[in-house]
Amino acid sequence: MTAAPPSSPAESTGASAGVSIELLADRLRRAGDVAARHDVDLLLITPGTDLRYLLGIGGESHERLTCLVLPATGHRAPPALVVPKLEAPGLAGVPLDELGIEVVTWADGEDPHLLVSDLAGGPTRLAVADAMPAAHVLGLRDALPEAAQALAGPVLRELRMRKDAAEVAELRAAGAAIDRVHARMGEFLTPGHTEAQVGADIAAAIVAEGHTSAAFVIVGSGPNGASPHHDVSDREIAPGDVVVIDIGGPLPSGYFSDCTRTYAVGAEPAASVREAYAVLRAAQERSVAAVRPGATAESIDAAAREPIADAGLGDRFIHRTGHGIGLDVHEEPYIVAGNAIALEPGMAFSVEPGVYFAGEWGARIEDIVVVTEEGGERLNNRSHDLVVL
Ligand code: ZN
Ligand code: ZN
Ligand code: ZN
After folding, report:
1. How would you classify residue 170: left for phi > 0, otherwise alpha for psi between -120 and 50, otherwise beta?
2. Is residue 12's pLDDT more than 60?
3. CATH architecture assignment, domain 165-388
4. Whose atoms come closest to the Cα of 323: which ligand?
5. For position 28, what pLDDT does the model report?
6. Which of 58-62, 112-116, 155-159, 200-204 has the lowest average pLDDT?
7. CA 318, CA 336: separation in Å to the nearest integer?
8. How many A from CA of 68 to the centre of ligand 2?
9. Separation of 351 CA from ligand 3 center, angstroms?
């Protein structure tokens, strides 16, 4: 998936509604606990999905530093949000007072990294947000030369990987919204239209069905379907084409949808296509059925991969089976060989095996699945058949 374009700096401190103060307070407390367990004194989190998760603050990082200074449990530093003076008014909707976070503003011409250093309480090891701009990472290194830097991702993923009930509800709503777009595919996917035209119609429908934007729209017709991360092109859809449609975007809460279906346009596909598709469909089904607490991420990958390999198509399945999803469209846990993490209730990820025949056609089936107490819940529920439109 391609990422959504970053929002402009002017939007960067927009607060996002919906997450209760109690939930935010709990996330901040647990982040401090996990940081301490990771031998980190201080988390430094710039705008991005980690900050959205912890404080409900949206937007992207830019050249002016905004940074949450969050001490690990036991470290002597006050929690603070360093923010450019001109952006402070945008924080009016964020319950920083209630969360015990001091707002520290800085004016153009000051060095905000030194301000972080003043607040930091002499850390020996600090962890910076994975997506922090390098300019800020190096600025903080200069301002805190005694402190070793690590990534905050391993701390934050322990929280973000396990979705709470409200997050699962958002992912479920996102799944239903993108299902409604797939339900309308007959309106969009018509012979004579180019992939780009089809993609524009789908993008409008993604927004019309409740997303804030269409973050990615893959329309892979005919041979283009053999390129898993194809975008759109000026190729005209022709009768008999097999078309991979992989689409998604964020809801207003920030939680993403991501769902792939493969369609046949205007004509029954060839028997060889039907045969390979049947293998893929069975593999996807088997993989989803394997989801339960305690199963490893790599076992879910293997459950999809083995039947495809047994059918002699192993070298046609050229990517991992899936990725976690939440405030980011790709996040932990990754469903891939070598990832032995045990699944737990609340983990949410895609199960999206595919088969790709270079120069000819491709197919992929993708559902988001959330781990429940007993097994897995599919959040996408449109037909998994090779539907002929
Ligand atoms: Zn992808
Ligand atoms: Zn995906
Ligand atoms: Zn996808």
Report:
1. alpha
2. no
3. Alpha-Beta Complex (3.90)
4. 2
5. 98
6. 58-62
7. 12
8. 30
9. 9
Closest-lying ligand to the alpha carbon of 248?
Answer: 3
Note the ligand closest to the C-alpha atom of 322. Answer: 2
Q: For residues 81 and 96, what is the distance between their CA atoms, to the nearest angstrom?
A: 9
Whole-number pLDDT of residue 273: 98
Distance 323 CA to ligand 2 centre (A): 6
Which residue, among 211, 237, 255, 230, has the nearest Cα to 364 in the 3D structure? 230
pLDDT band for position 38 (50/70/90)?
very high
- % pLDDT > 90, the chain: 94
Cβ within 8 Å of residue 381, ≥6 positions away: 175, 179
Ligand 2: distance of its center to the CA of 109 in Å? 43
Mean pLDDT to the nearest integer, 11-24: 66
**Collapsing DSSP states into helix, strand and coil, what is residue 143?**
helix
Q: Which ligand is nearest to the CA of 244?
A: 3
CA dist 387 and 389 (Å) reads: 6
Task: Write the pLDDT tens digit of every residue in 214-232.
Answer: 999 999 999 999 999 999 9
Residue percentage of the chain with pLDDT more than 70: 96
Domain ranges of the chain: 9-160, 165-388
Q: Ligand 1 centre and the CA of 42: distance in Å? A: 32
User: Span 241-265, mean pLDDT?
Assistant: 98
For residue 1, the ligand closest to its alpha carbon is: 1
% helix, strand, coil for the chain, step of 5: 35, 20, 45
* Alpha carbon of 233 to ligand 3 centroid (Å): 18
From the CA of 228, the nearest ligand is: 1
Under CATH, which architecture does the 9-160 domain have? 3-Layer(aba) Sandwich (3.40)
Residues flanking ion ligand 1, Cβ below 5 Å: 1
Centre of ligand 1 from the C-alpha of residue 2, in Å: 7
* CA of residue 173 to ligand 1 center, whole Å: 20
